[in-house]
Amino acid sequence: MSDLPDTDFTQRFIFDERDVRGEWVSLDDSYAAVLARHEYPQPVQALLGELMAATALLVGAMKFDGLLILQARSEGPIPLLMVECSSERDIRGMARYDAEQIPDGATLSQLMPDGHLTLTIDPVKGQRYQGTVDLDGTNLSECFTNYFVQSQQLNTRFWLNAEGGKARGLLLQQLPRDRQPDDEEREESWQHVVALATTLKADEWALDNETLLHRLYHEDAVRLFDIQPLRFKCSCSRERSGNALVSLGEHDAKALVEECGGQVEIDCQFCNERYFFDASDVAQLFAGGGTDVASETRH
């Protein structure tokens, strides 16, 4: 996919008279593209959509050039949820799950018991950052809020929703002291905007961002910034798959082809693209010929 749909975007906003900023995310086509490539059970769909929304919110709120990766891991029915989003706002996501162990109406603690959440920032230049905390909360919104509490960063709250094939998210963050120098005033102001966001009802998530923000904060001076489009895009390629074979070493790569009956299949767990390599392809890889000659690629 190369088009940038206007249904998929983040938008920053700021309160002109408060030390608070926000970020809104809407994911329709990109979320649908992820779900179309896998037959995820509904509880997995919902959690993956919420994680996609959270990832996009963080990319929108941060200034960096590179890749942001969120992983939620556990020993339960859903051992892995993973979403990647680049600073260019290309997003993809995947999940691993045991369908037989996922009951309807299961809670996060039942689906991902003793889980942990890892945030990785992989910049184009500079040092990689990674932080991990427990999945501490009744839902992912609480988990992300608690992540920032444990990281001792600025007050930050998340609200996430994924249902009806759409994923949405709202982030509020207290800014460093500027418009409100008084501590008590800052705290009251923060609690005010959070309390209003907490009134969000299930049916209001389907509203467009401007209407929703007006409903919540019509008594405040809220300034909206330009939207930043998002799109589903997978970074897999035949070249990367070939490099994975090269990393095995020539002897092991050739042995793997033989074990697989003359053709190795490498699947992308994000988009389900499949790349095939036979003996001649592997020989070409180690002869320095690259992956220009393709046995076959399938969706």
TrEMBL record:
**Localization:** Cytoplasm
The protein's PTM annotation reads: Under oxidizing conditions two disulfide bonds are formed involving the reactive cysteines. Under reducing conditions zinc is bound to the reactive cysteines and the protein is inactive.
Which domain of life does the protein's organism represent? Bacteria
| Record keywords | Chaperone, Cytoplasm, Disulfide bond, Redox-active center, Zinc
Q: Annotated Gene Ontology MF terms? A: protein folding chaperone; unfolded protein binding
- What residue stretch is flagged as signal peptide? none
Known InterPro entries for this protein? Answer: Heat_shock_Hsp33, Heat_shock_Hsp33_C, Heat_shock_Hsp33_N, Hsp33_helix_hairpin_bin_dom_sf
Sum up the protein's function in the record's words: Redox regulated molecular chaperone. Protects both thermally unfolding and oxidatively damaged proteins from irreversible aggregation. Plays an important role in the bacterial defense system toward oxidative stress.
NCBIfam families associated with the record: PRK00114.1
Name of the protein described by the UniProt record: 33 kDa chaperonin
Please report the organism this UniProt entry assigns to the protein. Pseudomonas plecoglossicida
